[in-house]
Design brief:
- By secondary structure, this protein is mainly alpha-helical.
- It has helices at residues 3-14, 21-52, 55-80, 85-108, 114-143, 148-177, 180-199, 215-227, 230-245, 249-260, 265-288, 296-314, 319-346, 350-364, 368-418.
- It has a single domain (16-200, 213-418), classed as MFS general substrate transporter like domains (Growth Hormone, Chain: A, Up-down Bundle).
- It is globular and about 55 Å long.
- This is Enterobactin exporter EntS.
- The chain crosses the membrane at residues 25-43, 55-76, 88-108, 183-200, 236-256, 268-286, 298-315, 321-338, 359-379, 385-406.
- InterPro entries: MFS_dom, MFS_trans_sf, TM_effector.
């Protein structure tokens, strides 16, 4: 068997979302753009820490960046189904590109100030409020339900491969040339994803506008729909806890690197790459097993393991153990997030999917302002090691309570049905 035939067999068996031409355009664009995004993420965190020297102010940047998602995600979910998603994504990606160039210019001209970074972070957050649920619900338009979980897993693979490469390149770039180049190259990287979107040809799903139904009524209908589906509700509650307390790495890892490990940029980039390497392993695992569909048992187990490894990370003072525990955290992060994301999209009705995914964006990313502020506050008072442990415990206890509560409710429902 020749190499081409072997490649086609692997794609058909394990990466079948890539058989869709539209998805290939989208995926290859993301491969390039996300490396730039991760370069900007670590560049921005290090820039803010250099400008202010305050973990709390660093946490505030994350809070401000994700605040629009917290405030406006539900409105975005009710609106985006009324317009072609491809056009929304072209607009949001273009705005993100411009913001990256502006930040690069501010750094190169030595006019960057903390207040400017906060402002740009807020505008980016407002853009992502529409970008995130649109991207999530766009996947099903370009691959269909059958290949949806594989597409989400491949997206995670791309995201986490970029999480390995981006911080490594970004850390080296900062050490040699300064953070401005991270922002400049991120801006350039958006050209790839915009080009890919322009090549995509698909029939968009546009929900028909109902007369005399306001946006608040549509939001309420979506929330009622979620509350009546136990599978959707339990998944979103777990995502709320993990999204709030587990995903504060952009705040905790740079502070942990400086104040606990007493090391510099290259170690910070390496630790972020370790997290990405674990996430990549998790994403590839999901890709290879995606035909079996999402599993609630995997969601339960992954939420518990994320909590445990966060606590273990806070208990080590060695960069090697820190890297290992972050890699393990990354594996379970992706197992959790991919199964949650797939479950919500597959088990939602078409007319509610964008609203469900807007709630997912709200609790997954929109909870970040609370989590970043909490992590920054605890790190400021008790150190980054104490913050890791606190975040781990605040994931473990509520997640366990939610799992046991819904298991009890399911047993009660089964008993009533038997009677």
């Amino acid at each position: 068997m020749n190499i081409k035939a072997m490649g086609e067999r692997v794609i058909n068996n394990h990466f079948h979302a890539l058989t869709h031409q539209n998805y290939r355009y989208f995926w290859f664009g993301q491969c390039i753009s996300l490396i730039g995004t991760w370069m900007q993420n670590i560049g921005q965190s290090w820039l803010v820490l250099t400008l202010t020297g305050s973990p709390l102010l660093l946490g505030l940047v994350g809070t401000i960046q994700f605040l629009p998602i917290t405030c406006f995600s539900l409105f975005a979910g009710a609106l985006i189904d009324k317009f072609p998603k491809k056009q929304i994504l072209i607009a949001t990606q273009t705005i993100s590109m411009i913001l990256a160039f502006v930040l690069a210019i501010l750094v190169f001209t030595d006019t960057v100030r903390y207040g400017y970074v906060i402002t740009l972070a807020f505008i980016l957050g407002l853009t992502n409020t529409f970008d995130m649920p649109t991207r999530q619900s766009f996947n099903i338009e370009i691959v269909g339900k059958e290949d949806l979980m594989n597409a989400i897993a491949l997206n995670s693979t791309t995201f986490n491969l970029a999480r390995i490469l981006g911080p490594s390149i970004g850390a080296a770039m900062m050490a040699l040339l300064g953070p401005g180049w991270c922002f400049l190259l991120n801006g350039v990287s958006f050209i790839a994803v915009i080009y890919g979107l322009l090549r995509i040809k698909t029939t968009p799903y546009v929900r028909q506008k109902k007369k005399d139904v306001g946006i608040l009524k549509e939001i309420k209908d979506g929330m009622v729909y979620i509350s009546q589906d136990k599978r959707l509700l339990q998944t979103l509650l777990l995502v709320t806890i993990i999204g709030t307390f587990a995903y504060n790495f952009s705040v905790l890892i740079p502070v942990f690197t400086k104040s606990v490990l007493h090391l510099q940029e290259r170690t910070y980039g390496t630790l972020m790459s370790c997290l990405g390497a674990g996430s990549l392993i998790g994403a590839l695992t999901v890709s290879l097993r995606s035909k079996k569909g999402p599993k609630m048992k995997v969601i339960f187990a992954a939420s518990m393991m994320i909590s445990v490894f966060l606590c273990l990370t806070g208990m080590t003072g060695s960069p090697y153990w820190t890297g290992l525990f972050l890699a393990c955290t990354g594996v379970f992060n992706i197992l959790f997030a991919t199964n949650c994301n797939s479950s919500l999209q597959i088990f939602s009705k078409d007319e509610y999917r964008s609203r469900v995914m807007s709630v997912y964006s709200l609790v997954f990313a929109g909870s970040t302002p609370v989590g970043n502020l909490f992590a920054g506050f605890v790190a400021d008072r008790y150190g980054a090691d104490g913050a890791f442990i606190a975040c781990g415990l605040l994931c473990l206890v509520p997640c366990l309570a939610i799992i046991l509560l819904f298991r009890s409710k399911n047993r009660d429902t089964e008993k009533q049905a038997a009677i």
